[in-house]
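Have a close read of this protein, sequence plus structure tokens, and explain what the tokens say about the fold. Thanks in advance:
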Amino acid sequence: MNQITDVPAIFGSDVFNETVMRQRLEPEIFLAWRSCVTGGTPLPIDVANHIATAMKDWATEKGATHYTHWFQPMTGITAEKHDSFLTPVGSGKVIMEFSGKELVRGEPDASSFPSGGLRATFEARGYTAWDPTSFAFVKDGSLFIPTCFFSYTGAALDKKTPLLRSIDEVSREAIRILRLFGDTESKRIVPDVGPEQEYFLIPRDLYAQRPDLRLTGRTLFGAPAPKGQELDDHYFGTIRTRVSAYMKDLDEQLWRLGVLSKTKHNEAAPAQHEMAPIYSDANAACDSNQLVMEIMKKCAAKHNLVCLLHEKPFAGITGSGKHNNYSLSTDTGKNLFRPGKTPMQNAQFLLFLAAFLKGVDEYQDWLRSTAATAGNDHRLGADEAPPAIISVFLGDDLNAVVDSIIEGSDYAGPVKSFMRVGVDVLPNIPKDTTDRNRTSPVAFTGNKFEFRMLGASQSVADPNIVLNTIMAEELGQFADELEKAGDFDAALHDLVVREFRAHKRIIFDGNGYSDDWKKEAARRGLSNHATTPEAMNSFLSEKNIELVTKRRIFTEMEFRARCEIQLETYIKTINIEARTSVDMIRHQILPAAMKYTEQLTRGILNKQSLGLPKKAEMRLAKRLSDACDRLYDACEQLSEDLKKIPAETAKAAGYYGTTIVADMNRAREQADILESLTDKSLWPYPTYSDLLFY
């Protein structure tokens, strides 16, 4: 029987958190750190030295011998270089030592990380700087110190730095708005994020037999299993014993690292599952989600499983996404996306709602680009994830409120009233005002917005950078206008009415999968970028560049670099998939099908010599032979087209997204036909039935 875990005792036990710091630091050192975190003041080197010593002592007590500056380069995963605490003291002796300088700054080699042209390949210097707002932790015998990563010239080479910049910007502008509503207590606004994480688990031995899974993370070939998810029997179903043991182990590892793992269940597809955390501030949530993805994979190996985070590892069944739940809260604990009970509270809520709608509408292309990857192209609009068209779902009651404000008419809700911002009290809006719309890319769910387009393998930093930045911009514009107003209530009312009316086109509560919505969205002027190359075409618009440079989130060079990296990653991903497809066809699929055809042919000759019927063998052999010919031709076409890649990045991405993807699809169609016809004992790798129903 499994031992019962004392969760409160182990939670955060491997984290150098605020509780540990209070215990191990002198009061004046702790207060200096707090001042750095809350007020943005520099951390003196003597304070850093005291913290470093305490951190090292705590870590070594937990068995750590090394430390690493843990950062998030633009690969989408984390990076780490480990140095020991050892310092020689002569006579062959060493001591364990760690200084404030080593805590605050590191210098890993940056030459092999993607930079998008921010530096030349031969320029190797890169620097890491401690993020004192994110707690250090012990894992695998090392002290992990969350850091920012930047180049010799100071350009941001990571995802954390622009995220922190965006958090500061939205806090500054939101505070201006709160002051107009008489809030003098709040000092800082904190974006809160809760990323739900979907994933697949498959047996490790079967995974090892699939070159496509090992090299690309998804199955490039695979005929449908006789049973898929038609019966909906996996969704929220009984969790397999083997998977349950994995989930228990995963939870305990995450809890020790202070990750607020809350919910676990089976998802819609066979072998698919989900983990959801409790909300935390955006910076911590992004760090935690990187840990979640890493530990999911490591923990799976302990249970002879493999965790797949690819957005679409299996064709024909639901893929995996990551829902990014976003809200804004004050440091006094007030959620700014929660409707209130007084006229001014509701007026404030409506102003923040107007800012969100305006921002999403005006920068819909930038928000869409954060979900643009080769893997996610398989999901968006595929009746399992939101469409590629950005829209916002508000729910029946809130939609009616917005309409009544725009039209200046009676609100036909539970309490009929003429809606005027700043005067009326909104009807009590419960958390779930209407049924959930699973086809909506951005859905209001009572006190937060759920961005549902993100792919399972992606960093949550990117969409939160966008959401923070657009909220900062719109709130800043609103504050500029309202601070000059003579009659605040009248100006507030006019502003909210104007913005609701101007951006009503982004609100949609219907079926996002329908063809009618695609036509309606086009009439409204909304973008519909179905693929990554299409989505990235508008990334470097003048409007986006002006926004990010004005708000100091990116320099223009940093912003352009990210576009280049995203397209390069797309190109490399499709190229690896295409080359793997050719290799599997030539060395596994065709030989297996031809061998079976040869066996059938020998059987036909034997039956013919005996005068026995041979119709089945002849027809099957012909179907196999024809499919082999078609697959051979498709493979040759794919191979030839891979030699014609344009040199310019944007053109190459478009070529891969059209020509190469189409070639791969044609080849797959024939390969899957061959799988359905070939003797299973001859088929070279595990089938969908093997992988999903182990």
